[in-house]
Structure formats: structure tokens, C-alpha cells
Amino acid sequence: MNASTFWFLAVGGTAALTHMSVFAVAQRYLWPEVANALGFCVAFFVSFAGHRLLSFKDAGTTVGTSFKRFVITALAGFASNEVMFVLLLRGLGMPPLLALFAALVFAAGQTFMLSRFWAFRR
What we know:
Strand content: under 5%
Order of helices and strands: HHHH
Structural class: mainly alpha
Number of helices: 4
Radius of gyration: 14 Å
Largest sheet: none
Shape: elongated
Distance between the termini: 18 Å
Number of domains: 1
């Protein structure tokens, strides 16, 4: 495993834990789909900072360009996350935290590819 992959997994794991923690608190007060969006919003900043500083520190783009591209990358990941989350939660009746975990794993591969080859292009 190279350093970029290690840091991507470490940062992604930290962002996922942030997302799930915010979700776990927020779902008591909000619909699960809205709590998922709130978790995404908080975790976005953890993810961007970690990926820019650690996973893709040798990025060939400016911080501004990377940020704009990462917003698109993250929103695409969130869209697939939310679709999967709703299917698992509402369609299959999975418990909310388990549905969120599975949806986060599902979206991680897409986010890595877009981050590696576009948002933080080397």
C-alpha cells in the first residue's frame, strides 16, 4: 500500500466517523435523510483538509481549484450515498446507522477515483 492510499483510507475513515457521529446525534431530532446531509456537510471539511494536506499533498492544482473540484466530487459521492442510504433504510428496513455505514462504503470508491484523477490531479 502506498502512502497516498494509506492517507486516503485514514482521512476517509476519520471523515466517515465524523459523518456517522453527527448523524447519530442529529437523527434524534431530524429525519434520517436530513441527518445524513448534515453529517455530510460537517465531514466534508474534515475530508477536504485531510485529503489536501495528506492524501494528495503533491497535488498539481491550487487549493482553490482543488476545493472547487472536491465540492463536485463530494456532492457526487453524497448523491450516491443518499440514494443507497434511502434504498437500504426505507426499501430494506435496515437500521439507520447500518444503512449509513453501507452507503458510506459504497460511495468511497467513487470518491477516491474522482479525487485521485480529477480533484487533486497529479
